Amino acid sequence: MQNVNRTAPAIEFRNVACRFETPTGFYTATAHTSFCVADGEFVSVVGPTGCGKSTILNMAAGLLAPAEGEVRIFGTPLKGLNRRAGYMFQAESLMPWATALENVAIGLRYRGVAKDEANERAMAWLARVGLEKFPDRYPHELSGGMRKRVAMAQTLVTDPDIILMDESFSALDVQTRELMEDELLAIWQASKKAVLFITHDLDEAVSMSDRVVVMSAGPASRPIGDFGIDLPRPRNVAEIRMDQSFLERRAAIWSVLREEVLKSYREHRTELAAS
Ligand SMILES: Nc1ncnc2c1ncn2[C@@H]1O[C@H](COP(=O)(O)OP(=O)(O)OP(=O)(O)O)[C@@H](O)[C@H]1O
Fold first, then answer.
1. How much is the average pLDDT of 245-259?
2. Whose CA is nearest to atom 7 of ligand 1?
3. Where does the record place the ABC transporter domain (predicted)?
4. Which of 53, 64, 201 to mutate to test the pocket of ligand 1 (most atoms within 8 A of CB)?
5. First and final CA of the chain: distance in angstroms?
6. Residues 6 or more apart in contact with residue 109 via CB below 8 angstroms
7. Which domains does the chain have, with CATH numbers?
8. Which residues does ligand 1 sit against, CB inside 6 Å?
């Protein structure tokens, strides 16, 4: 177990910029980006498509290095992969040739945990996400929602201090998605890890988070709003979305986000017309 400075934010973006080299020159995806995720806090990032949400998450994961500024993890500048974080992508992350149990246990095995203990801990996580009856199923024998549950167990089994989620539930049907959102909230409520959650879906962001950070349209996207969501917990996402105070918070965020979405839409139309 690594030492964790619990007084420092779990994640801190300090005036971060990220650029990509393209055939026509450098593209600045994000710039002047500063915000924190406190230990135990659930923070969502929303913004128009292509504004740089995944880029931000990838910087927090250590998969991308900022061109300017720095990312700090519990007070320490991040160099290389963020080993305190578990990462749950939008795309399927399961190995098709491995069973549900093997898929969950693999992260522990990589960390040198003996097979029996790894399987025992993986089984406990499968049970926690409601899949105790399916440890021997292969990914193609599971529904989309069940695969997401396995992926969630896979992310959480190593007990990361930080959970990074990129559009993790967006491929699911509405009902399964709400179940997964409630499940994630219940797990988070019990363990209080820091969560950085990327989503297109403002309802999802508001119903789940302690804070919602709004990014501007790109290029050089940056935070233009940071909204505290002081709705009571525990929350049931479907129920809370009908609550008047939810609707008020959603409307306040949308009033900032809307213009950025329109800007991004206009820009894409111009690009398409020029091509
Ligand atoms: N490897 C790369 N090379 C060049 N450009 C990139 C690269 N990765 C991302 N970009 C560009 O950087 C910008 C931000 O991309 P990113 O995927 O972070 O946005 P996003 O907000 O997560 O998008 P979406 O909402 O569509 O998932 C986009 O314009 C994208 O085309």
1. 96
2. 20
3. 11-242
4. 53
5. 53
6. 115, 118
7. 11-84+161-274 (3.40.50.300), 91-159 (no CATH)
8. 20, 22, 27, 29, 47, 49-55, 200, 218
Residue 123 to residue 105: CA distance in whole angstroms? 8
3-state secondary structure of 121: helix
- Name the range with the highest mean pLDDT among 69-83, 88-102, 258-272: 69-83
Q: Is 253 helix (H, G, I), strand (E, B) or coil?
A: helix
Nearest in space to 224 (alpha carbons), one of 1, 25, 22, 46: 46
Query: Average pLDDT over the chain, rounded to whole?
Result: 92
Confidence of residue 4 (pLDDT cuts 50, 70, 90): low
Element (H or E) spanning 267, and its range?
Answer: helix 244-274
- Closest C-alpha residue for ligand 1 atom 31: 50
0.90 exceeded by pTM: yes
Q: Give me the mean pLDDT over the 71-82 stretch.
A: 96
pLDDT of residue 93: 82
User: Is 3 a residue whose pLDDT tops 60?
Assistant: no
DSSP state of 27: E
Distance, in Å, from the CA atom of 201 to the CA atom of 178, rounded to the nearest integer, reads 12
CA angle 74–208–28, rounded 5-degree value:
60
What is the whole-number distance in angstroms between the Cα of residue 35 and the centre of ligand 1? Answer: 19
The pLDDT value given to residue 83: 92
Cis peptide before 219 (omega within 30 of 0): yes
Helix axes 100-110, 115-128, angle to 10 degrees: 130
**Cβ atoms < 10 Å from Cβ of 250:** 20
